[in-house]
Design goal:
The complex is a heterodimer of chains A (about 230) and B (about 120). Chain A is of the alpha/beta class and about 230 residues long. Helix content of chain A is about 35%, strand content about 25%. In chain A, α3 (about 55-65) packs across α8. Chain A is globular, with a radius of gyration of 20 Å. The chains are: A alpha/beta (about 230), B mainly alpha (about 120).
């Protein structure tokens, strides 16, 4: 019995160690976020880079973004205002700003950090009795002082969008079609943003700021991939 | 029988308590229906969606002030911004809201002073 248990545990350990998911503490993963000289307070969000064909994906991500970042302790410059300023300056997609000098964000917005967001995937799947959406996102938080990457996140998430089965296939086909058409994507976009923010160290306005360094987070993909701009 | 009623009472009040608390975040912010009314202004920009969003932002400010919560980052500034676009807005209120934002969140000063200077 003990041998079996040992065998099971070693297999489990091997599986975790060899998998592509890495478990690190927040401090190990993002040490700059715990350095008083580098930890940002204010964040300006630039227009998302949308690599998908879902035109409404960026709007959904944008409108559900401020809440989790602010709740996590940061000052997010009001996106409604900043996005209008970018638009007025001819910037409609974040690609245009990747190589912009950081002084643009520091002098005009007084921001300590810039948040770049890329939507890599937004696939709605309509199955016979179910529907889901797979959302792939990457987030990069860059310091306006020195272009250092302070935090990044890159993952794909699948969220069910349809309700329960009625037990009658035909009725289900019809109801899946109906629910999908009228699906409320706001909670889905919120879930995606919340998952990302779950790995973000608490900012200065959070009651537990500086105390979450030992918290373990699962980083599903290499941090570097999130920086890929092509 | 009364035990059952008592238990049901406990369960229901727990649900209500949790539900009530969950609308205020750990950082102490209340957001109301913010994402929905904001999304509406992006999807269908119109005087109607603007007014609806203004109403919701006012609601958030009112609730936060009543419960002695700090309005979330950007709420005062955004209300000022939308009022400046609305027929029902006036300059005095817009300026006073922008000032409230700067007072509450000093890191917004650079941004807001630039907005006001234009």
């Amino acid at each position: 019995m003990n041998n079996k248990k040992f065998y099971f545990l070693s297999v489990l350990a091997f599986w975790i160690l060899s998998g592509c998911a890495s478990v690190e503490t927040k401090f190990e993963a993002f040490p700059k976020m715990y350095d008083e000289n580098q930890k940002p307070l204010s964040i300006v969000v630039v227009p998302s880079i949308n690599k998908t064909t879902a035109a409404d994906a960026a709007e959904l991500i944008n409108s559900t973004l401020t809440q989790p970042f602010a709740d996590n302790g940061y000052y997010v410059l009001p996106i409604a205002i900043s996005s209008e300023i970018f638009k007025r300056e001819g910037v409609v997609a974040g690609e245009q700003l990747i190589n912009a000098p950081m002084s643009v964000f520091k002098n005009n917005f007084g921001a300590d950090a810039v948040l770049f967001i890329t939507i890599n995937e937004w696939d709605k799947k309509y199955l016979v009795i179910a529907a889901n959406v797979t959302v792939g996102m990457s987030y990069v938080l860059m310091s306006t002082k020195d272009r250092e990457i302070l935090w990044s996140y890159d993952a794909a998430l699948t969220v069910d969008t349809a309700g329960q089965s009625s037990g009658f296939i035909l009725a289900d086909i019809i109801s899946t079609a109906i629910t999908t058409a009228a699906t409320d994507y706001v909670p889905i976009a919120s879930q995606v943003n919340n998952a990302a923010v779950g790995t973000l160290p608490f900012g200065s306005y959070h009651p537990k700021t500086g105390e979450d360094g030992d918290l373990k987070v699962v980083l599903t993909k290499a941090k570097e991939r999130a920086l890929d701009s092509d | 029988m009364s035990k059952v009623i008592f238990r049901a009472f406990i369960i229901i009040s727990t649900i209500l308590a949790i539900g009530g608390c969950s609308s205020v975040s750990e950082a102490g912010y209340y957001w109301g229906k913010y994402p929905y009314t904001y999304l509406e202004t992006i999807r269908s920009p119109s005087p109607e969606s603007t007014e609806k969003h203004i109403t919701e932002l006012r609601e958030i400010v009112k609730y936060s002030e009543e419960k002695e919560l700090k309005p979330a980052p950007g709420i005062y500034a955004e209300l000022a911004f939308w009022l400046s676009k609305s027929e029902n807005g006036n300059d005095t209120e817009v300026t006073s809201l922008f000032n409230k934002e700067m007072l509450l969140y000093p890191e917004s000063r650079t941004f807001i002073e630039r907005l006001l200077s234009k």
